[in-house]
Amino acid sequence: MDRHILPVPLDKAYRLLNHGPTVLVSSHHEGVDNVMAAAWACALDFAPPKLTVVLDKSTATRALVEGSGRFAIQLPTAGQLALTHAVGNRSLRSDPDKLERSGVAFWHAQDDRLPLVAGCSAWLACRLVPEPHNQQAYDLFIGEVTAAWADERVFRDGHWHFEEADPRWRSIHHIAGGHFYAIGEPMRAGEA
Amino acid sequence: MDRHILPVPLDKAYRLLNHGPTVLVSSHHEGVDNVMAAAWACALDFAPPKLTVVLDKSTATRALVEGSGRFAIQLPTAGQLALTHAVGNRSLRSDPDKLERSGVAFWHAQDDRLPLVAGCSAWLACRLVPEPHNQQAYDLFIGEVTAAWADERVFRDGHWHFEEADPRWRSIHHIAGGHFYAIGEPMRAGEA
After folding, report:
1. Does ipTM surpass 0.90 in this model?
2. What's the CA gap between A89 and A36, in Å, rounded?
3. pLDDT digits over B31-86, tens only?
4. Which domain holds residue A139?
5. Which is nearest to A178 in space by CA: A37, A29, A7, A16?
6. CB spacing of A20 vs B15 below 8 angstroms
7. In a domain, B192, yes or no
8. How many domains, in total, are found in chain A?
9. For an interface test with A, which of B157, B168, B173, B191 has the most A Cβ atoms less than 10 Å from its Cβ?
10. Domain CATH code at residue B26
């Protein structure tokens, strides 16, 4: 584990996702690792922290999530734009070398097999909260966050520090077809 | 209707929400209008376009959504930061003058009573897709988008143009406690 990666208290975990970044969804089942990109991930609750993510039936990652009941949501950085686009446009089903060809390396928390993508800014390890109707009708999956980490070079003391970090640490926000925006400048709402 | 507000084709409506902005949720029921802020809104499907939004049981807006079966999701701009913070921190239940005091003005599409917040960058009118278990267990509401509009000064021809528009048009992305980030600069992922 990189010395810059620090645990995030669970009561602050929603802050990692609250600004709506595009994420990477990773999972492991029966010896197979995979990761995909997803723009449709969202916080759902504070305590215990929960989130939603949409996983299309065509994705190989979805089968790993359903098989293992676990997944990780992580935030790729502006420096990982090409990696994000690559894992979002290649499938392990048609391209067995997807991970190597996309430049993905994993790290693991202690002896956990859940694959975490190296170089991201934050990670949320999740336990699937089974909701078969949502999964079948809407491709909508609910996860309860069981652990979270962030790179202290961009998130520390419960706050993002995008404005002080190197621009390659900015979160990325997909629109369509390879068009993204990086997160921008901080704004503070005064007391109303 | 402002001359700058143009319809967005339903097959492009997901692009209004894909980059994860904080939104305003408005509704009308039996003579009562209200609007609240929500960071937890997310696209759910392309065609027909659907979205999810989390509405806490304590909110007055939720009762209007449940009563009428309709709501609108709209994107406040950086210029509406104070308005967004105000409608997110005041409740119609304890402050009957909430809307006036927060500086909210509505517009309406033709003779529809659904209130749309003036000055936003985009609007999605939604029909509630009733899912009582999600609503009760998770405060999670699903909407099907029935119409969408955007201000052509910042979204036109199916694309956001934040980088060319006045900075006050940027979408805003809440972290916690009045701390927001504006959306930043465009990035283009090359062919992998």
Report:
1. yes
2. 8
3. 999 999 999 999 999 999 999 999 999 999 999 999 999 999 999 999 999 999 99
4. 5-182
5. A37
6. no
7. no
8. 1
9. B173
10. 2.30.110.10
